[in-house]
Fold each of these.
Amino acid sequence: MPARILFVHAHPDDEASKGAATAARYVDEGHRVVLVSCTDGAAGEVLNPRFDTGLLDAVPLARVRADELAASVRAIGFTATHRLGFADSGWHEDPADVPDGTFARTPLDVAGAALAAVVRAERPHVVVTYPEDGGYPHPDHIMTHLVTMRGLALAADPAHTGDAAAPTAPWRVAKVYAGSAFPRERILALHEAQLAVGIESTHAEWLATRREDEPPPDARVRCDAWFARRDAALRAHVSQVDPEGDWFDVPLAAEIAAYPWEPYQLLASEVVTRLPEEDLLAGLDPDAWDAAVGQPGTG
Ligand SMILES: [Zn+2]
């Protein structure tokens, strides 16, 4: 029985840089794997020095990034994509500088309701979002965590009717994860992998900032066979990803030998499972979940 897995991401390109190989693996294994992209990415900067910025005289960045997202989605193979269309808040060190009208300034119930509508339509068994601190402190990434948690609560609440003209049935999710793309163990493995193949470590400084007693991930999903798809998705973000840059500074074979997984934290589970997991679907029987939670014959 195929499962339904929903990934919630902040900007176009996050679906490529976080969890892409996991998503591609579950697609290939026959599951329904759905992407929610919360913002338009319009406040991003061009991060690839090889990108021809002259293009932006004719085409707005939001349009460029929408096209890049579509190409990345094709590389990963997501079954469906929902773009919530909130305005990118932009990077701000001081949260007080976030402009009004942007995603991170949207009331949680408003953004949460938009996500709840998708959750009720897609009825995922598993949802993957960001950790509470966003994974890194971009206001939209912190907001993505908050909106996911509020959206899941609204989706499950029978008192939340959604669109009054077309009320939707509640849906409860079995498992919620935070992608924790770079736990210390992965940074250490990639650092050692670079040294082992005789190249300078680009992870040493990063490693030094991490606590040695950092808890290990709750789940490690083996997905090295899909790293090439992840890299193709990254390269699809031509305005954001330098094909000669940081994302590719560990040779693929060395990365696969050192750390062939993508790591996750389990934020909530309504099924019994034993940590650490090797599969986001561990402990889950999608049929039984649908029978217990779902409304047979709908959706
Ligand atoms: Zn982002």
Amino acid sequence: MIAICTHLGCIPGFRPVPGTADLGEDWPGGFFCPCHGSKFDLAGRVYKNVPAPSNLEVPSHHYAGASRLLIGVDAQT
Ligand code: FES
């Protein structure tokens, strides 16, 4: 994902550890925006009832082989 919050453009932090003291026991891990508290899961999907209106953006990408991923390039048709 592109780490720019869909609320007002802050940079969400990668917080993969579940149940941290500051995010609560029910935090499953994901991305947390420190500016206004938006939360995204590990796939960048936004949680309900947070300021961010949409998921984190997934950049164009292309699988160029079994073990090669090109970021910023769409598949050629
Ligand atoms: S900019 Fe991320 S919650 Fe507001």
